[in-house]
């Protein structure tokens, strides 16, 4: 659907003005680093940043301000391109985040303008006290992207809920290359982060992995200038609500999920930058009640994939990941989908299956400027996707740049394109598109 050009231009102009003003700030001397505080032998260092994000989308996207319940429609008719899609597709989306494009409605000028400070982050880095053969470290970190208690986006925007990102302790035995971590942090699988401003992070568009409670063991074995890294973890199984009694189908299962990764890291021709390649796997299950008398069914979750980080020259590098898996909604895979009911009863539920990946080129021509360009894709097997609402492909491309005005003040601007294909009753795939421009202003400490 064509958009009103004047409204679109006003959106882009409004985003550009504060960025232009920011780049005109005179570079001042950076403040001194915050000193660590020693509490009974543990050194505690405060860190974080205040961040403002501004984004304009020419179409609806999800899930915006992270509403506790997303509004859906059971009667409205949507018209992406030429194909008519019946109701059931979420009718609400906001511009703070963009995972995939919603089918364009019959309403004209269905774009979004978002501005938020919810990505502001604060944390405490912990170190010590150390022993003769071990070293202790830890982290406690939170942001304000936990959504809110209100079902209106405006209330959640100005009264956001604190969200725990990291909370863990780590004991390392350097002599043996061994470390043990307990708490919440990033998954072992898919360890790389996409260089995006959009904090949706190419989730549902090729990138998988999130943060969750876990018990992890890491072993590093030096081999000349290289090292072999092995990791294994038992993690919390997180799932959606079930059809009968389960508030969380992941909690209902009788065992944790398991993750593992084996990687090799070695220097090549670029000084102080290593080439790293890894392979990882995931296995778990969720338990679903299929009737009210206690009959259950296990839905399996699995994935395998690779990650690569390759420096080309000192200012240029490539990062990439790829995976295949099923029931990956809790890991941001399969375009955010878990399972599909393919028949008339709950017993016909089947896991969504698919594959995806992403790659990015990182370029740092000068110390203050970083440029990134990349793309990602998530593809779902059509026979495992739901009619009307099922997303079978989600593609994204992006380009962005970051500039450090001072050591602690950074601005950035990004363009991202999303194309999402839906499964419709006739079997014809319908395409929804989204063009997004986003800016960010960050004051780190």
Please give a handful of descriptors for the protein shown:
single chain, 445 residues, mainly beta, Porin, 2 domains, 16-stranded antiparallel barrel, two-stranded antiparallel sheet, 3 helices, 20 strands, disordered N terminus
Layout of strands and helices, then pairs:
Layout: H1 5-23, E1 37-39, E2 42-57, E3 112-116, E4 121-127, E5 135-143, H2 153-158, E6 163-173, E7 178-186, E8 211-223, E9 226-235, H3 249-252, E10 257-267, E11 274-289, E12 296-313, E13 316-326, E14 339-341, E15 349-351, E16 353-366, E17 369-380, E18 391-404, E19 409-423, E20 429-444
Antiparallel strand pairs: 1-2, 2-3, 2-4, 2-20, 4-5, 5-6, 6-7, 7-8, 8-9, 9-10, 10-11, 11-12, 12-13, 13-16, 14-15, 16-17, 17-18, 18-19, 19-20
Question: Can you offer a commentary on this structure?
Answer:
The protein contains three helices and 20 strands. The protein is mainly β and 445 residues long. The protein has two domains: 1-126 and 138-162 and 405-445, no CATH class; 177-391, Porin. The strands form two sheets. A 16-stranded antiparallel beta barrel has the order 2-4-5-6-7-8-9-10-11-12-13-16-17-18-19-20. Strands 14-15 form a two-stranded antiparallel ribbon. A hairpin with a 2-residue loop joins strand 8 (211-223) and strand 9 (226-235).
